[in-house]
Specification:
single chain; about 190 residues; alpha/beta; 7-stranded mixed sheet; two-stranded antiparallel ribbon; 6 helices; about 20% strand
Length: about 190
């Protein structure tokens, strides 16, 4: 029996950056990394700490690909914020990341956040006059967004998701947006979801 061909990662071109702070929700982050890489979408994990080893909310240590200072993000196609506590607070307190989010949003680069992390976008005004979702209890931290109780919502260049239970749907939505619907469907079938 022949082994399945692996999907080649894109080389050069655009990149997705997923930001990790201590206390991030592991499943929300790593589901995105896994499924986007299966789809052949370039994605790098970025530590906003002083170490490439970042510890999640459930004490799972993860090695990031790069430190925040190791990229100028000029090739960014999408910036992704996982939730979790205190991960969301730690991301929100990182001035460089917040400035990057605003700069890239103003440059029409896609942004996605899941669970509590949409509150960061709310604080920055990125969700103003948009439809968004988040983890229950964070609805009041979405700025002037129109909150909807859905697993994943895309409004313009911003995608938000509700939490771990929406992590797969969120990744499939990003694959659809960054690549195409057929690739998202193939991944969906391949993971027997």
């Amino acid at each position: 029996m022949r082994p399945k061909k692996s999907v080649r990662m894109q080389i050069g071109g655009k990149m997705v950056y997923l930001f990790l702070a201590d206390g991030f929700e592991e499943l929300e982050a790593l589901t995105q990394v896994d499924l986007l890489r299966r789809a052949g979408i370039g994605i790098k994990t970025v530590s906003v700490t002083s170490s490439k080893t970042v510890t999640g909310a459930h004490k799972i240590a993860t090695n990031a690909d790069i430190l925040f200072s190791e990229s100028d993000y000029s090739d960014a196609e999408l910036l992704f914020l996982p939730g979790g506590m205190p991960g969301t607070t730690n991301l929100s307190n990182h001035e460089g990341l917040c400035n990057l989010l605003l700069k890239k949003y103003e440059s029409n680069v896609r942004i996605a956040a899941i669970c509590a992390a949409p509150s960061i976008l709310g604080k920055l005004g990125i969700l103003d006059n948009k439809t968004a979702t988040c983890y229950p209890g964070f609805e009041g931290k979405l700025g002037s967004a129109n909150y909807v109780n859905k697993k994943v919502v895309t409004d313009g260049i911003v995608t938000t998701s509700c939490g771990v239970g929406g992590a797969i749907e969120c990744a499939l939505e990003l694959i659809r947006l960054l690549k195409d619907g057929q690739t998202a469907k193939n991944i969906l079938e391949g993971i027997l979801y």
